[in-house]
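Quick log. Single chain, no ligands specified.
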Amino acid sequence: MDTPKKADSAGLSRREVLKLQGLALGGLAVGGCVPDGNCPDLDPIACPDVQSGSANRNTYFRAMRSFCLDSEPLAADEMRITFLGSWFSPRISQAANSIFVEVGNALGQSDQFVFDCGTGVMAKYNAMGIPASKMTKIFLTHLHGDHMSDLMHIYCFGPSADRKSPLYVWGPKSSDFQYTDLAGNASGPYSDGTAAYCQLLREAARWHTESFSFQTTAFTDDYIRRNQLTPGWTCPHATPSAPPAGKDGYDLVAFELDWTKEGFDENGQPVSNNVAYYNPASGVKITHFPAVHARQGAISYKLEWNGLSMIFTGDTKPNYHVVRQATNGVDVLIHEMTPPPEIWVEKFTGLQEGDAGYDLVYADLNRVQQSSHTESKAYGYVLSLLSKAPRLAVGTHFPAEDDTIYSALEDLRVWYPSGDVVIASDLMVIKVAAGNVDVARAVVSDYTWTPSAPLPSATYDPPKYWTWETNDDGSYVLDNGGNKIPVGDPYAQLYPGADIIPQSLWDI
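-> predicted structure:
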């Protein structure tokens, strides 16, 4: 077989060649248009129903001030809450549920947390430049797919990025629920808590984690010791109650929380039996309390730091647990909120009242709401019960578009006529400080690669699948002490008979 001849590149490097406009992608031109900056704009008139109408825009969100990440670093005394997913059914404008909360170093160290991580949120985390090394602490409100599905991605790809330490996951213990229906059929109890979920996720991801383990997945003990990377935080009322000794990026550690605990005794006096996380280095304390959603075992969270606080309910029906937790004042109350069932019927099915099948669908979707959710008017009622209003009330888990937002605000204001309220959309950023709460819309690139924080001085344990590093002539590469150097072996797990095309044939 003849070897293809190398095209003349006039001595240019690959990077220089790729910089030439249109050269790399010229062969992919569509309709005679090459990506040289002269392509005509797509014509929205061709699909008017897709681009126009109040159901296809969110002017409410677009009206927020722009937030530019590079020019607005986290302040020492600031808590920042970023919405990376704000509904349950992923669409281009909204992923499923997740918020990223970070605090500055006013009390010592900075700290950061992921609350829920539903379907599709990783694209938004990447767009916001949040590296895997800052996504080590995941707090789940419950185990519905729209609140935990992207945990698979966070877990699997973190070690191949810059997370060379375990992934810690908090969430409710098993529901311990047993049920016998009217015909006498029994079900449960099941092992349906966070620990069981993480154990099964570890096994489900085994092919992935092994195949990636020719890469480094853990720092050396010396590097951990010198840089004080051993966790100093505790989990006072979780099981287990302290971070384990594991250090590998594919260690997956669950802390189960008692979903029955609220932090108050039977007389309404505060008690400290519901602390999920406490970090003396950063000053962050996170407690949990019951949520009322679909099945016993869901929880909500409250984060307190430096005189600031926020509540994230996750999914829940309106309940007095939230009222007790927020009644004496909270800076940001993030509560789920949904349109009424008649809006669901219209949006999901296109049926109008009076159409055949409308009543059946309405009854079914109404049962979903009765088991699980808080209508916008009910959220307003919850806010009206608080002795002290939050500095900012946020409605999330909501399909945010013009024809739903403004009707929801009207409903909410029936019971809560004043007080700052905002409805969340993906990439909404809330900056909280003692003197100000600022809401903005992050401006990001659609083409951001997975961010990774370089650590040029870090030292790593040898990969699980490794070999000795060699020179081109086959001799061993030696370090300054004359020792052979272990490196990852990308061929270790490949089928020995794999008929691979040699790189020498194509990289010419």
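Confidence is low (pLDDT under 50) at residues 1-9, 17-36.
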